[in-house]
């Protein structure tokens, strides 16, 4: 039976390596060389050798791959790179004090929820929100997006910014969806040294970070 990525597993190709994200275990990992070669043969649709078949069976047993009746071959994460960032604008609107406090509270709630629920359940909740949002989604006016970006930028002065990209991104995503604004949250990785980062894109523009912050990262998961 054909093989596909197991639920909760995603990967990307970064610096000639394949990096995997296991949502359920909240961990990033690479495959050993023999298993990676077998996985590469699977991606190419090439006939695997007997040894590669054994390696692929091991990946199934470990929950990285799963048998699929639909024949969906694994594919690396794809996310369209934003062309601009609202935080790079020469003239940025001043942050509203109440909106900044509300944004800081939203980040704090998301941080607590991540600790309590874990990344997999947070991601599942975000997906449900996106599935349940109204179909007549409107295109937000630029000034509304600028206000959201300014509020969460200012909130970082209250919450701090170090190691908070995940809760901040979940908070921004939920804020946008609550206001019927379509948004996409992306988690990306880079090597040498390994780092992960999360950001939010809306209407083709980055609203959570300056563009230079996310440029080194390769998307590994989109929500």
Which features characterize this protein?
223 residues; alpha+beta; 5-stranded mixed sheet; 3-stranded antiparallel sheet
Summarize the structure in short:
The protein is 43% helix and 20% strand.
**Domains (count):** 2
Query: What is the radius of gyration computed over CA atoms, rounded to a whole number of angstroms?
Result: 19 Å
| Major β-sheet profile | 5 strands, mixed
Low-confidence stretches: none
If helices are DSSP runs of H or I spanning 4 or more residues, what is the number of helices?
Answer: 7
Looking across the biggest beta sheet, what order are the strands in? Answer: 6-9-8-7-10
Beta fraction of the residues? 15-25%
Overall description:
With 223 residues, this protein is α+β, with helices and mostly antiparallel strands. The protein folds into two domains: 3-67, no CATH class; 84-222, no CATH class. It has helices spanning 33-44, 50-61, 97-117, 119-132, 142-159, 165-178, 211-214; strands at residues 3-5, 9-14, 17-22, 27-29, 65-67, 84-85, 184-190, 195-202, 205-206, 218-222. The strands form three sheets. A five-stranded mixed sheet has the order 6-9-8-7-10, covered by helices on one side. α1 crosses α2 (50-61), α3 packs across α6 (165-178) and α4 runs parallel beside α6 (165-178). 30% of the residues are buried.
What's the topology here?
Blueprint lengths: L2 E3 L3 E6 L2 E6 L4 E3 L3 H12 L5 H12 L3 E3 L16 E2 L11 H21 L1 H14 L9 H18 L5 H14 L5 E7 L4 E8 L2 E2 L4 H4 L3 E5 L1
Parallel strand pairs: 6-9
Antiparallel strand pairs: 1-5, 2-3, 3-4, 7-8, 7-10, 8-9
Helix pairs in contact: 1-2, 3-4, 3-5, 3-6, 4-6
């Amino acid at each position: 039976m054909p093989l596909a990525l197991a639920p909760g597993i995603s990967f990307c190709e970064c610096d000639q390596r394949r990096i995997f994200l296991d949502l359920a275990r909240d961990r990033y990992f690479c495959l050993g060389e023999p298993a990676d070669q077998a996985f590469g043969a699977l991606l190419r649709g090439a006939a695997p050798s007997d040894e590669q078949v054994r390696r692929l069976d091991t990946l199934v047993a470990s929950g990285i791959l799963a048998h699929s009746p639909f024949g969906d071959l694994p594919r690396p994460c794809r996310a369209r790179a934003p062309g601009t960032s609202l935080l790079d604008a020469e003239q940025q609107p001043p942050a509203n004090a109440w909106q900044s406090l509300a944004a800081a509270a939203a980040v704090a709630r998301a941080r607590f929820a991540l600790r309590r629920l874990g990344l997999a359940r947070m991601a599942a909740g975000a997906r449900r929100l996106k599935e349940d949002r109204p179909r007549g989604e409107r295109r937000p006016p630029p000034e509304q997006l600028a206000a959201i970006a300014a509020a969460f930028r200012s909130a970082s002065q209250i919450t701090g910014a170090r190691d908070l990209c995940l809760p901040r991104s979940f908070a921004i995503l939920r804020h946008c969806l609550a206001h019927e604004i379509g948004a996409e949250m992306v988690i990306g990785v880079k090597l040498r040294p390994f780092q992960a980062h999360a950001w939010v894109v809306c209407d083709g523009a980055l609203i959570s970070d300056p563009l230079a912050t996310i440029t080194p990262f390769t998307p590994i998961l989109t929500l």
